[in-house]
Amino acid sequence: MAGLPLSDPEGAHRVRMAEESDFCFYEWTGQAAAEAFFELHNDPAFRGTGLTGVVLPPNCYAVSQKPTAGAAVIGAYAHGLEYANQLVSAGTLLLFGALTNGYLTFLLAAELGNVDGIFFLLCVLFCAAGEWLLIRVSITGYRYTPVLFNRASGKVHVFEDRTPFFGFLPLFGGGEFKIHTYDWSCIRAQISRFRISTGNSAQDNARLACVVLNAPDDGKIVSEFPLGVTTSAIAIQILLDHWEHIRRYMEYEGPMFLDGEGPHREVTTRSLFAALFFGQPFIGPGAKAAFEVTDMGASLILVVWQILMLPLFPLTLTLGVLRWASSRIRTEPRWPTEIIASVGGKLLEGAELDAWRNVVPEKPGRTVGHGFAGVDELEAHRDA
Predict the structure, then answer these.
(1) Is the pTM of this model over 0.70?
(2) Average pLDDT value for residue range 273-282
(3) Where exactly are the structural domains of the chain?
(4) CA pseudo-torsion sign 275, 280, 283, 285
(5) 317 vs 53, 147, 237, 314, 369, CA distance in Å?
């Protein structure tokens, strides 16, 4: 796989049909494949950020033969796709922690009620400060931080949440934010590995992100941002399939969505009724999708999961309601008017979405800049 340059050769990004990279000729699934993949970090042509980051080839090269949008696309415009991770919500666990901490504070106060003054006061203040911090982080900021791929302008817009957590304003919801805009020609995909430890066990996961090059013909990495797509570290192929969908879309080689795919909106954070059945795949509003799964392996996993989760219904109900509350209190991120106009206006739905779903427009001639990739930055407040 050596020999694929990190930078984009002059004019290569204008190729209509992509040349397949060596990534297309392997199935990147399993432990051996994961070890071989992340070994590429030691090759200067693929070395990304951190200790494990692997930068994929330039965008004129295909990395998979099975592009998929999955559940990462949350919105579609006539000329843009919006990516974000709606599934991971730290606010859920923090609010649950706040409830637990409040209960423990009550028990501590009852236990130490007869203890003299200063020690009792310090203990209560310490617990109260922890309670305030957990609640504040759970209800402050934006629900998610989206990335908008603008095919018409050849730009990538990144929403950065800059809401201060260690302050008193805003009391809840989002505050300051910043929009970063980069040239698509300066963007490369990166896959990195990270470890999650729970008690005595640990699991290696992998995430898909983007790095920003100083210029199309300069391999120096100047920035990076996540795409909200993660999986087990032994399932790298899924991340390659996701990136191939984005790459084909932006390179005018593929449609907005393949058959059966479309924008995904997390229902359990938008409907209180749906939130009551969080984590219960065959109960509530999500049951229809669960019953429509045709893959036998996936169906078996869902059945086993439902059997395990049913006795835990009180816990999943509590987590679902807290998750919904955290999402509702936080602010929905919104793109500036000029960016929305550049991708064709309002979000596509229903018949309008179906009309654009399989369209692959001709790629226009576009002058690509050779300066720093972050050509535009916009700082704003949610009330601006």
Answers:
(1) yes
(2) 82
(3) 1-12+22-85+145-162+171-245+368-384, 93-139, 264-346
(4) positive
(5) 38, 31, 34, 5, 51
